[in-house]
Design brief:
8-stranded mixed sheet; globular; 38 strands
């Protein structure tokens, strides 16, 4: 057996390594909500179903509450339930949430006393409630839900007239106000609809309880949700539009200032900005928006107002995290916490602005709940340990790496070293390309059902996660640097990263694999065709093979045009064909495993079928297509996830470690013993 280079691994020789079965049972903290008094934090816990034992399905989302000092951690709503959208009542006496519990036909609003007890269904609507917010006096709730289908339409469908009118026969989203002045322990009365000029997605009450802030899109189609949501200030009583905020592009979270005179939001810098990542403010009466952090070479992920009107924000900077505080005039920006070891993307602030809660992770720890005293400038303290068994697992070293692209641009990424490696040994390497491309890898937990990470490191692989140009976390200019040049310089950045590992004496140039989902699947297809000489195996997930047909079959054609290509295939078909892997199948030599959800609305599974058929007809390359019924743009159910992990790892083992030249068997051994590899 090769010598173990990591001294800590040598000390932990009794520990075992991470397996696909382990990954299938990892629990993670989802959202956090700090009680107004700052003494307790509610959080959701994602609990995967037990593969082979539970009924197949997505993970459960349970509700817990932990004290701010971590001394007490209690389940509030556990078992087979899906809890979301945590909101404390303004007085902190109740915790509210969305769930579809036993007897519910739709997702409803529930409340539970702050000291635990039984949940009470506060309101059940005719359709799923999607978002809600408490009026500051606690006597009303505003919420968003779809309208109901007309009865005559339901009757026609029962008679067999179930045709679908593409992108036209949608049901509108509606905004409602619910009076709960009679108390929270009895079902509330019927909600009243507030007529607004568009499709609402979220809603926030102003501090006085007289105005509503909501984001409206022209239609409920996903493309409009991504690209054309604009903020509106609405009179809560009449529905009159008091102001329209022309946020310049994509829109993230938004909130009122404590005095109700200012609105802050996370927005794109312009209509071509790939990500909503700029912290902007504007008068509640409308007017010009102002970027509070124009010099931030990163992206703001979340923020909250403190009582004094200052904004506490969380930003992704490079592969790390920054928690900062800034005035609404953009002055006195100060760092409260920065780290490249503990990274986060969500926070919740207490009513006094002195305490906050975070969801954070590290290279050795999936998402957990943390607390932080910003008034004392204390570092975050960990409150939960939802995977205690991970302490018995040997994990490989992970580090931030940087290399220089062909044009001199510095590129960052994360490298997971092989767990065991002999001195001077050249190891097989897997490139994991992220999707988007408007996303990036943080220096956190990088292993999941579709990301080989520590599973592959335990088998002797090096695993590289490149943040190529076009990634987020480094400002607007870097995120735009790949526009109109899909799979061009951005993919050259990936190749340069592989070359850097080869020059470092780590990677075997003859045993490099590539994988990724969505845009990462596009990279996998591109690497397995156009650059087939560089990759000895590929695992493509919900990926793109034909950029021309992709536009015509996707639910985000305008986003692709506005923030990815700056043109479309009907204006410039030559470019889209030139950047389509399908055009290079005749030079393909890379064994390719293709996996896709059969119900994917984002990247039609026809993209995978096209590439599979072309490779079968035009080459002798080993290729396999695996379709997952009932799955969309990513697998959600436990069985599909576990199957994916096993197939991915076996494919890489077969072609990168075992020297395979033919297809491995299509059957998978679902050995569910705890030590299964």
């Amino acid at each position: 057996m090769p010598a173990v280079q990591d001294q800590e691994a040598g000390l932990a020789s009794e520990a075992r390594v991470l397996t696909p079965r382990d990954v299938a049972r990892i629990q993670t903290v989802g959202e956090v909500a700090l009680r107004p008094d700052g003494d307790a934090i509610a959080y959701t816990l994602s609990v995967p179903r037990e593969v082979g034992e539970d009924e197949n399905g997505p993970a459960w989302s349970q509700l817990y509450v932990v004290s701010f000092d971590g001394s007490e951690n209690r389940p509030f709503v556990a078992g087979e339930v899906n809890v979301s959208h945590l909101r404390w009542s303004p007085d902190g006496e109740y915790l509210s949430y969305l769930a579809r519990r036993e007897g519910d036909e739709q997702t409803s609003i529930y409340v539970i006393p702050a000291q635990a007890g039984e949940s009470v269904r506060l309101y059940h609507h005719e359709t799923n409630i999607e978002a809600f917010d408490w009026r500051p006096d606690g006597r009303a709730i505003a919420f968003v839900a779809n309208e109901t289908a007309p009865l005559d339409l339901e009757e026609l469908r029962k008679q067999g007239f179930d045709q679908e009118i593409y992108e036209e026969d949608w049901l509108s989203k509606r905004l409602f106000v619910l009076n709960v002045s009679g108390g929270l322990e009895e079902p509330a009365e019927v909600a009243e609809m507030v007529d607004v000029p568009g499709q609402p997605w979220h809603v926030e009450w102003d501090p006085d309880g007289t105005r509503l802030l909501t984001d409206l899109s022209p239609t409920p189609l996903i493309d409009d949700r991504y690209m054309h949501r604009r903020l509106h200030v609405i009179d809560a009583s009449t529905g009159a539009v008091l102001a329209k905020i022309e946020n310049p592009g994509k829109l993230g979270s938004f909130r009122w200032s404590p005095d109700g005179e200012t609105i802050a939001m996370v927005s794109g810098a312009d209509i071509h900005d790939p990500l909503e990542g700029r912290l902007m403010v504007v008068s509640a009466e409308g007017g010009e928006l102002r970027d509070l952090l124009p010099g931030l070479e990163g992206h703001v992920a979340d923020f909250h107002f403190a009582p004094n009107g200052r904004i506490v924000y969380l930003a992704n900077v490079g592969t790390g995290t920054r928690v900062g505080r800034v005035r609404t005039n953009g002055q006195n920006d100060e760092s409260l916490y920065e780290s490249e070891e503990l990274v986060s993307d969500a926070l919740s602030l207490g009513a006094n602005g002195r305490r906050l809660a975070l969801v954070a992770e590290s290279s050795e720890m999936p998402r957990e709940a943390f607390a932080m005293r910003i008034d004392r400038r204390e570092e975050p303290s960990r409150l939960t340990d939802v995977n205690p068994w991970l302490s018995d697992i040997r994990l490989a070293r992970q580090e931030i790496v940087r290399w220089t692209a062909e044009d001199g641009l510095e590129i960052e990424g994360l490298l997971i070293h092989p767990l065991e490696r002999s001195e001077g040994e050249l190891v097989p390497t897997i490139v994991v390309a992220h999707g988007g491309p408007e996303s990036h890898y943080k220096n956190g937990w990088l292993t999941s059902y579709s990301m080989p990470g520590q599973m592959a490191a335990a088998r002797g692989y090096a695993v590289i996660y490149p943040n190529y140009r076009g990634s987020t976390g480094r400002g607007v200019d870097f995120a735009k640097a790949d526009q109109g040049d899909g799979a061009g310089a951005e993919f050259d950045d990936v190749l340069a990263g592989v070359d850097a590992l080869i020059e470092r004496g780590l990677s075997d140039p003859e045993r490099v694999g590539i994988t990724g989902g969505s845009y990462g699947g596009y990279f996998t297809a591109w690497g397995s065709t156009r650059h087939s000489d560089r990759f000895a195996a590929g695992v493509m997930f919900v990926g793109i093979s034909d950029q021309l047909s992709k536009t015509g079959t996707s639910d985000i054609p305008k986003e692709m045009e506005l923030v990815h290509w700056l043109t479309n295939p009907y204006e410039n078909p030559e470019l889209f064909l030139e950047r389509s892997p399908i055009m290079y199948v005749q030079q393909a030599r890379t064994p390719l495993l293709i996996l896709h959800g059969k119900d994917d609305p984002r990247v039609n599974p026809g993209q995978s079928r096209e590439l599979y058929r072309a490779l079968k007809m035009m080459t002798q390359v080993p290729v396999r297509l695996v379709l997952y019924p009932g799955e969309g743009h990513g697998n959600r159910r436990a069985g599909a996830r576990y199957d994916y992990s096993l197939r991915m790892l076996r494919w890489f083992d077969h072609f990168l470690k075992e020297g395979g030249t033919e297809l491995p068997p299509w059957q998978v051994d679902y050995d569910l013993r705890p030590d299964v590899m």
